[in-house]
Amino acid sequence: MSEPIDCVIIGAGPAGLVAALYLLRFRRSVLIAERGDSRATMIPRSHNYPGFPEGIGGLDLLRRLQRQMLPYGKPEWGGEVLGLEADGHDWRVIFKGRLVHARTVLLATGVRDRWPQLLDAQAALQQGVLRFCPICDGFEAINKRVAVIGDGDHAAREALFLRRYSPSVTLLSDGGDLSAAMAVDLRQAGVAVEATRQGSLRFAGGAVWASDPQGRDLDPFDAVYGALGVDPQTRLLASLDLALDAGGCAIVDGHQRLSRPGLYAAGDVVRGLNQISVAVGEAAIAATAIHNALRERAVDLT
Ligand SMILES: Cc1cc2nc3c(=O)[nH]c(=O)nc-3n(C[C@H](O)[C@H](O)[C@H](O)COP(=O)(O)OP(=O)(O)OC[C@H]3O[C@@H](n4cnc5c(N)ncnc54)[C@H](O)[C@@H]3O)c2cc1C
Questions:
Q1: Atom of ligand 1 nearest to the CA of 58
Q2: What ligand 1 atom has the least distance to the C-alpha of 266?
Q3: Domain segments of the chain: what residues?
Q4: pLDDT digits 0-9 by tens, 204-258
Q5: How many angstroms does the Cα of residue 13 sit away from the middle of ligand 1?
Q6: 298 Rama sector, left if φ>0, alpha if ψ -120 to 50, beta otherwise
Q7: Is the dihedral of CA 255, 259, 261, 263 positive or negative?
Q8: Which CATH number fits domain 5-112+230-296: 3.50.50.60, 2.40.40.20, 3.40.50.720, 3.30.300.30?
C-alpha cells in the first residue's frame, strides 16, 4: 500500500489554499479536495482584504492563491469528500470511487448562505445588489437605499449595523420573532420594517423590487442584504461524534485542532468572523500545527 498523504485538505477556498501553500513550503504531501463552490467565488470585488488597494474579485484571489503554491510542489486534487473514518493514527478519506489514506485532515469546508427568494438572484449578486455580508461591503452601501431580508433579531441587528452607512434602511420581514426591545431599537434608529408579499422580490433595472402584502410596489432598493443565516458545512463530522457549537460550527482549540487527533479545521466552518483574513490566519495556524504534529510523530523527509 502507498504511503499516506501528510494532509488531506477538504476545501479550496482561501482557508484550504493558504493551508496548502504553507504545507507545501513545509515539504509535506497534500491533497486538496473541493466541490467548486467556495463562498469567495461569490465576491464581485472585495475592498477589505489586505494588500489590494484597488480591491480584488473573489475568483481572481483564488486563482492567485493556486498559482502562489506552484513553485513549492504539486498538490493532488480530488472532488467532493463523502466520508471520514479513523484508521489507527491516520484517517481514511472517502471520495466517490476512491479511498485516500491521510495522516491528518484539515476541514476547510466553509458555510453555505441561505438565499432569499429573489427572482434573478444570481444577476443581482454579480452586480453587487444582492449581498450577504455587511462587514465586507457596508461601506459600499453609503447613502444607498438599503434593505435587509430576514426575520427576527439577527436580521434586525444587521439592519442596525447598516444604519451607520445609510439613512434609508428597511427590514423586509414578516415580523416573526422580532423582540419588543429590538422593535423599539429599530424605531429609534429610523429603520423601517415592511412586510412583503411572498415571492414578490425581483431584480430588474439594477434594483430590487418588492411588493407589500396588498400587492403595492415598495420603492426599489439599490442594495439588498440576505440575513437568513448560514449552514456550516460540518456534515463530515456527524459520524465522528464531534460536538458543534450553538451555531453548528466546528469547535477548535488554539492550534485549530478538533477534539480527535489528526483532525483540524479553519475558516468559516469554525465559529467566528466569516472573513477571508480570518480564514487565512486560521489556515496558517492549522498548517503549522499539522507540520509540527507530524514532526513529533517522526513523519519526516525520507
Ligand atoms: C457575497 C459575498 C461577499 C463577500 N465579501 C467578502 C469580502 O469582501 N471580504 C471578506 O473578507 N470576506 C468576504 N466574504 C466572505 C468570504 O467569502 C469567506 O469568509 C471565505 O470565502 C471563507 O473561506 P473558507 O475557505 O473558510 O470557505 P469557502 O471559501 O466557502 O470554501 C469552502 C470550500 O470547501 C469545499 N467543500 C465543502 N464541502 C466539501 C466536501 N464535502 N468535499 C470537498 N470540498 C468541500 C467547497 O467546495 C469550497 O472549495 C464574502 C462572502 C460572500 C457570500
A1: 17
A2: 26
A3: 5-112+230-296, 115-226
A4: 999 999 999 999 999 999 999 999 999 999 999 998 989 899 999 999 999 999 9
A5: 5
A6: left
A7: negative
A8: 3.50.50.60
pLDDT, tens only, 18-28: 999 999 999 99
Is the distance from the beta carbon of residue 234 to the nearest atom of ligand 1 less than 6 Å?
no
pTM above 0.70, yes or no: yes
Superfamily for 115-226? FAD/NAD(P)-binding domain (3.50.50.60)
Identify whether the C-beta of residue 172 lies closer than 8 Å to the C-beta of residue 149: yes
User: Looking at the predicted structure, is the pLDDT value of residue 174 above 70?
Assistant: no
**Does the beta carbon of 220 sit less than 6 angstroms from any atom of ligand 1?**
no
Q: Which of 96, 136, 239 for mutating ligand 1's site (highest number of atoms within 8 Å of CB)?
A: 136
* CB neighbour burial string for 249-263, b if at least 16 within 10 angstroms, e if fewer: bbebeeebbbeeebb
Q: Residue with the nearest Cα to atom 14 of ligand 1? A: 275
